[in-house]
Amino acid sequence: MLSRAKSGEIAAALLAAVVLALAGCSAGAPGGSTPSSGAPTASAPDTTQATTAVPNTASTTTVPTTGASGPNNNGPLAWVPPGPVDPADPPQSQWYLLLEGKDCDGLAAAVETGNSSTPDGLALWGAATDACRAVYQGQLSGWDAAAAALAPLQEPEPERCLDRAAYRLVAALLAAHTEDPEAPLEPVPGTGTACPLGLAGLDAQDGQGPTATPSSGLSGGTFQLAGRFIDVVALMVGEQRVAVEPDPSQPGRWDVVMPAAASAGAVTVTAESSAGPIPGSLTFTYVDGSGG
What we know:
This protein is an alpha+beta fold. The chain contains 6 helices and 10 strands, in the order H-E-E-H-H-H-H-H-E-E-E-E-E-E-E-E. The strands form 2 sheets. An 8-stranded mixed beta sheet has the order 3-5-8-7-6-9-10-4, with no helix packed on it. The protein has a two-stranded antiparallel sheet with strand order 1-2.
């Protein structure tokens, strides 16, 4: 028979072994902490990003836990903010309006046309379509489809600001869904803009497209603004303030009648919004003797 002291030593040893075993299970168990998801509140994209794992049926990869307009470290989950979309943007960029408006079926139809202007366009916007349908139409298969489509893609460069915002939205939605697959997602409206605002040029609507160096005869003429705007209330043509009118047949576009000039020469043109000056300027040249 063991002594009482010896029995105590054995019991203590067994307890220590159990504690060590439990500690080992805890350290090796799956399901560690998951980065929180939320929506961006900054008005411009940020290249500093945290990452989180997104499930894929074939493999696992990491994607930024970012929202549409900035890091997804704080605040509620947000949908994409206004682009804004430039009327001169290619068709792929025009799809952003469908995503912004949560028109999942319209976006799907646009993607199905295959009219992509970048090699990753169909995969990226297909992922956006799948995520949109998962959130707003309850199509649960959309989560796996979006994750599989996004997994091999790289986040677009800042100059592809609309594609970049779409990528960040899908990444943020996937991160939120991964964190709690049973929780319904209710994104709040996005803040700021996906792309910097700015006046880029004028379009004489003669088939030549917009230019940053527009011109006309001394009589002036009607032009359409090119650039990214939330709204435009006026142009400053030299020292003259000229009213701008929204195009009644093309929402999001603004027309301006450039005033006549007494003599040939160049003037600086800038734009104003209801919130103040819009970044960017261009030089408009009046040419004597041309048929403006």
